[in-house]
Amino acid sequence: MRRHAIVELLDGTHERWGNNVALALHSLIVLSAIAIALETVNGLPPIFTRLLYDFEVFILLVFVAEYVLRLTCSKHPVKYAFSFWGIIDLMSCLPAIALLQPQWQVVRTIRLIRLVRLLKLFRTSVALDRLGRALTLVKGELIVFGVLSALMLYVSAVGIYLFEHDAQPDAFSSIPQSLWWAVASFTTVGYGDLFPITTGGRIFTSFVLFIGLGIVAVPSAIITAALLETQNTVKPRKNKRNTEITKKEDPNETS
Amino acid sequence: MRRHAIVELLDGTHERWGNNVALALHSLIVLSAIAIALETVNGLPPIFTRLLYDFEVFILLVFVAEYVLRLTCSKHPVKYAFSFWGIIDLMSCLPAIALLQPQWQVVRTIRLIRLVRLLKLFRTSVALDRLGRALTLVKGELIVFGVLSALMLYVSAVGIYLFEHDAQPDAFSSIPQSLWWAVASFTTVGYGDLFPITTGGRIFTSFVLFIGLGIVAVPSAIITAALLETQNTVKPRKNKRNTEITKKEDPNETS
Amino acid sequence: MRRHAIVELLDGTHERWGNNVALALHSLIVLSAIAIALETVNGLPPIFTRLLYDFEVFILLVFVAEYVLRLTCSKHPVKYAFSFWGIIDLMSCLPAIALLQPQWQVVRTIRLIRLVRLLKLFRTSVALDRLGRALTLVKGELIVFGVLSALMLYVSAVGIYLFEHDAQPDAFSSIPQSLWWAVASFTTVGYGDLFPITTGGRIFTSFVLFIGLGIVAVPSAIITAALLETQNTVKPRKNKRNTEITKKEDPNETS
Amino acid sequence: MRRHAIVELLDGTHERWGNNVALALHSLIVLSAIAIALETVNGLPPIFTRLLYDFEVFILLVFVAEYVLRLTCSKHPVKYAFSFWGIIDLMSCLPAIALLQPQWQVVRTIRLIRLVRLLKLFRTSVALDRLGRALTLVKGELIVFGVLSALMLYVSAVGIYLFEHDAQPDAFSSIPQSLWWAVASFTTVGYGDLFPITTGGRIFTSFVLFIGLGIVAVPSAIITAALLETQNTVKPRKNKRNTEITKKEDPNETS
């Protein structure tokens, strides 16, 4: 009973304490992510670096404690240890332990593995479920328009390569390079590192932009629509309509 | 009775004068905001600077008069003085009074506090109400997708940092710096101050852009949808539908 | 009768010739606009400049002919001469006549007045009507959100000015200058001529971008929605619905 | 019977093998497109260039085999040879054969004609059909708003030319050059190669951007809406509505 209560506390489903402990753990994860980001800033005052290091040790101890608690309080410790979340929980401690070895500190990538902790945010979250369900809902559409978008990007890249390669041999040096231009243009980000300068290239760009934006925008629109769909943002409108109708016929109905 | 009429005049709810006085006050606020903006322009002819100063003094007098009138005509002067709008009304005069002290003129921030006047535009406005209602309506969705977007931004920033840090140590010097790149890219603003140049960074960007735009666009889409919802822009379409249905059943119904 | 037929020919409502003559005139207007654009290109070969000049004279003659025909064939010549389209028809000839004076050729603005001809494209067009009806439909919403957007732009400009003025005194030299940054950012165009470089400015930008894009996007969304509304792009969907309903009740109904 | 089975294999409609062979051919086409893109990269190691060449020869043999098989197995070989797909199948081999001649290798455009193979991806694809149907559905709307957008672009280009030509005679040297600015701005790509610097030009841009984005966005929105329409992403919403209506009449119906 008591061991069960501890797991409930960590999962945020405890009767009395609700999700307070889980929220605190999630806040720690977010703070840890911020600390990891700040560590990479150059020229931090030594006192601040020291503070970040101490904070990391503190977080490390908390997560080790969480892992040990979950392991000992679980009904099936071995099953937990090899489950998805068990491995994630372990992995969110291990790289930090390695980090305490000064000679490993320098390897940036190892330090960033600590970010696997972010995955723990999704343990009790419904957002990932929603996203997953939304993507499942529109998988077929996404594949079709993903392929169409990829073709559009490829054809645009080849076109701009033909038009601009001679005028800007460095900027549009190859088709893969031109693909980068196509991605930056069709997402309308437009960094400005690559752009056509020949008349032909500009006319070609104008045409493919107006056609292509309509096609390339569809995958994004599909995800957005599916997300809104699975979340019933359209609730209020629906409610109004329901009220109108149910008022007259069936006031107990819930949609 | 008479004192009540003055408050009504200022609020724009007077029987005879309608919202003429309130409109004039609102116009003054907008003009004041424009004047404050123009003051910051370098190399203005002295005559123009003088004019702006005189205009500021004029506006100051109007707002002092409004404050005094509201204070003396209110049924509960003390209650008004400590109410939200009472404090706003006072604050929109005070910084300007300070402004008359030449030695304070230099402090730019003090001068800009005058912009608190803009808040007075919302006293009788329905736009803020609508915005507020729209945001309340979708608070839950906004939080979920705000968090998802933040995670997406963070993960993209870490990814681009890993890919680009060695190639562009100045541009992508740290993860917080890379976060700025992520914000500018996922909002599709794309200033062009930071962009990936390595092949790995560009492929990574291409992938996260197509996935991320779908996620990051949702909060904006939610606000837009909620605003349109609270405003019934969908009116005409709904009407048509109603007509279709009501034609057959209940021709007197109005939605 | 015959004079009436000429007007019908020019308006594109003639029984036998349909809108062939009107289409030809419209094509001439479009060609004239292209010619006017090409004239401004530097370093054109003299033969081409000569050709454009000859084409201009030809177009001029056609439009003079059209004006004279409309004037003589109209039932009420004087009424026509002072009507909106009468004045437009006259104006589309006059600047070109002036153009034939070599000494006036240099004044670019005079030459561009010829573009008033573009207005003639809308004489029989329904597109302008639709646009007008769409805008009328959503006038109220547009004003409210136009004002909100303007406030958002202004407040963002003031904010970025406070954050960036000291770091980039040239780029963000004044609030009006910062307003230009706000316009380019909130429309997500992001030219990259102005962007924040301080940490404070970037954090501020990140926040206002996510909030502001939701607000500033609304006026555009409203116009788009209204345009689609007045055009029944939703036709197919509606048809489906109609079929569903009418199938059961009234198969002859057409919406 | 056997010859028929081969065509079915190639088309992906074979009973037992399903679309396995067709999928393999499609994968080859995609790989071929990637290879063609990689060939243009400078400074590839010779071994890799050699590999790409061998791969090209392999693909060439496959496509020649496919063409011969289709030709000999078709019921009407001559009819096939002169059909659309017959010519595409032939064309996807021919340029590659030419490529084997070393002296033709240098002509980039000839080598890129091999990309005609991409068209073969659409032989059995439904995506092109959908796109085609979607475009047919909204042809009328697209033309009207395409013309309106073109006018908007043209007028904006003329305006910015008038405002900026004197300040930036190189950047805004002519109206066609300014048109390029208009395209990059109204698609919100904003490369940053051209932008207004005069106060007048910026105010003009601010106004036309807010008006124009609403108009120029419509063609893209129409294509997106039509694509989603032909794909019934709106399915769930429609279902709900159906239920409402049928509730009153036929509660057992499920759509």
TrEMBL record, chains A, B, C, D:
Signal peptide: none annotated. Residues 27-229 form the Ion transport domain. It is found in: Membrane. Its main location: membrane. The chain crosses the membrane at residues 21-38, 50-69, 142-163, 179-197, 203-228. Keywords: Ion channel, Ion transport, Membrane, Potassium, Potassium channel, Potassium transport, Transmembrane, Transmembrane helix, Transport, Voltage-gated channel. It is a multi-pass membrane protein. InterPro entries: Ion_trans_dom, VG_K_chnl, Volt_channel_dom_sf. It comes from the Bacteria. Pfam families: Ion_trans. This is Ion transporter.
